[in-house]
Amino acid sequence: MLVSSCLLGQPVRYDGKGQTLQHPQLRVWQSNKKIISFCPEVAGGLSTPRAPAEIIQGKVITNSGEDVTEQFQTGANIALELCKKNKVRFALLKESSPSCGRNTIYDGKHRGVKIIGLGLTAALLIKNGVQVFSEEQIPALIKALAL
Known about the structure:
Blueprint (H helix, E strand, L loop, with lengths): L1 E3 L19 H8 L4 E3 L1 H4 L9 E4 L2 E4 L6 H17 L4 E4 L10 E3 L7 E3 L3 H8 L3 E4 L3 H9 L1
Helix pairs in contact: 3-4
């Protein structure tokens, strides 16, 4: 299973922090070596920390106006190749991220407003048959893995 590195506590978020997900099932998966930790933004060449970015009109733009779409697309492509290489069928990704958002992303105006949408990596993985879940959907992920 591919898991957003930030959810495992790695300091890869735009603000240089992690966002450790505390869930007993995650620890079981880790101890069973079922997890591939990955951050598409770092893999795409972005630094940590970095300017916050949001999707607007199909492009990923930082709060200072820089277009980082290419780096986000590169990270998404690397994530897909990693999933293909390792026969990964499930991903647990960070909700609301412009890369990993599964159900929501920010509206692109850098004002903290969430809208329904997919991050670039989540969208690419779903398009290619990987079942993507956010940290808010762990019960559904557990159920899907049991099938």
